[in-house]
Amino acid sequence: MSQYQVDSRGYYGPFGGAYVPEMLYPNVEELQNEYQNIIQDPSFREDFIKLLKDYVGRPSPLYLANRLSEKYGARIFLKREDLNHTGAHKINNTIGQILLAERLGKKRIIAETGAGQHGVATATVCALKGLECVVYMGEIDIERQAPNVARMKMMGATVVPATSGSKTLKDATNEALRDWINNPVDTHYIIGSVVGPHPYPDMVARFQSIISEETRKQLVEQTGSSHADHVIACVGGGSNAAGMFYHFLDDEAVNLIAVEAAGHGVNSGESAATTALGREGVLHGSRSILMQTEDGQVIEPYSISAGLDYPGIGPQHAWLFKSGRGTFVSATDDEAMQAGLLLTKLEGIIPAIESAHALAHLEKMTFKGDETVVVCLSGRGDKDLDNYMKYFGF
Ligand SMILES: *Cc1c(COP(=O)(O)O)cnc(C)c1O
């Protein structure tokens, strides 16, 4: 058993666990008791892989970015999660969870969403399976993210505005939890990243681990070895990074680099650089590292990319940080935007601004000779065109 994977109590070192109100115990315990048996069943694996292939379009290519490699003096591969159906890695998780919900006999799906990307990925698999879908979304986010709200509605989901507090993700999460407490028998709650009470962080990491499973095979085909010197991914809650790191965790020769969003600068008061600024505490049902005030109030995060705008990281990442297994760095809005434009000009690929944070770190690295680097291109930039246009004045 890897020291970097969840233990039988639901912990990664001191992080993780399930800190939920008593009224949620039955729901969470049902999942804790059932998830491993279901996921490890060969017929589950068969259904999961088949949908990933025929519906999502996997395996996603591992692309040797020649001009980018030339610029930085290393062999740089991009893991093309941007080519997945719906445009990012999030669908890997929602496919896994909808199959799990079916096997648990659940008829109704709920989810929370911030910018709407996870809401869309959830509404998509509910349409695929003909299941009722309710997505909680902050009232302010609903106004800001009209195209994603339209996508969810087209797919038959009900989008419920969260009208309390700051009317954003935190409040949507509270509403979703309230719904789950009131509907414990027929409803499954699909969480969108490697956060939340045990078993969610482990469950989501397992579904996303297809990313590194494919990558290692593809490296063998293209380089003759499954080894990479550096593996880089951006971190919001941490699901694309968890999937990208998964099959490299016990290979200590592989440098695992997690890039957080520094917004206007780590010390600007407007950032989402959790490990640089945060302290240990409990957020959304698990013990981890989060940005908080002296007296434990969660600090509102900021990033130009909606997907990285989260005040914590998942418990496994907190453990990778604390144990030193992972290298945690950050990139500012400006660095990410420049990196996004650079990839577009050199390779003809417009990345999601989240993914551009991972690319931005290449600029700060020095390579000796022929090192192999894999960058997780977590999503495509179509959804970010408005932001690119405003920033660069196109
Ligand atoms: C949501 C999102 C992220 C951030 O979420 P993680 O759970 O940290 O992976 C990163 N990239 C894209 C394209 C996203 O949509």
From TrEMBL:
<keyword id="KW-0663">Pyridoxal phosphate</keyword>
<keyword id="KW-0456">Lyase</keyword>
<comment type="subunit">
    <text>Tetramer of two alpha and two beta chains.</text>
</comment>
<dbReference type="InterPro" id="IPR001926">
    <property type="entry name" value="TrpB-like_PALP"/>
</dbReference>
<dbReference type="InterPro" id="IPR023026">
    <property type="entry name" value="Trp_synth_beta/beta-like"/>
</dbReference>
<keyword id="KW-0822">Tryptophan biosynthesis</keyword>
<dbReference type="GO" id="GO:0004834">
    <property type="term" value="F:tryptophan synthase activity"/>
</dbReference>
<comment type="similarity">
    <text>Belongs to the TrpB family.</text>
</comment>
<dbReference type="InterPro" id="IPR036052">
    <property type="entry name" value="TrpB-like_PALP_sf"/>
</dbReference>
<dbReference type="InterPro" id="IPR006653">
    <property type="entry name" value="Trp_synth_b_CS"/>
</dbReference>
<dbReference type="GO" id="GO:0005737">
    <property type="term" value="C:cytoplasm"/>
</dbReference>
<comment type="pathway">
    <text>Amino-acid biosynthesis; L-tryptophan biosynthesis; L-tryptophan from chorismate: step 5/5.</text>
</comment>
<dbReference type="InterPro" id="IPR006654">
    <property type="entry name" value="Trp_synth_beta"/>
</dbReference>
<dbReference type="Pfam" id="PF00291">
    <property type="entry name" value="PALP"/>
</dbReference>
<comment type="function">
    <text>The beta subunit is responsible for the synthesis of L-tryptophan from indole and L-serine.</text>
</comment>
<keyword id="KW-0028">Amino-acid biosynthesis</keyword>
<feature type="modified residue" description="N6-(pyridoxal phosphate)lysine">
    <location>
        <position position="90"/>
    </location>
</feature>
<keyword id="KW-0057">Aromatic amino acid biosynthesis</keyword>
<protein>
    <recommendedName>
        <fullName>Tryptophan synthase beta chain</fullName>
        <ecNumber>4.2.1.20</ecNumber>
    </recommendedName>
</protein>
<feature type="domain" description="Tryptophan synthase beta chain-like PALP">
    <location>
        <begin position="57"/>
        <end position="379"/>
    </location>
</feature>
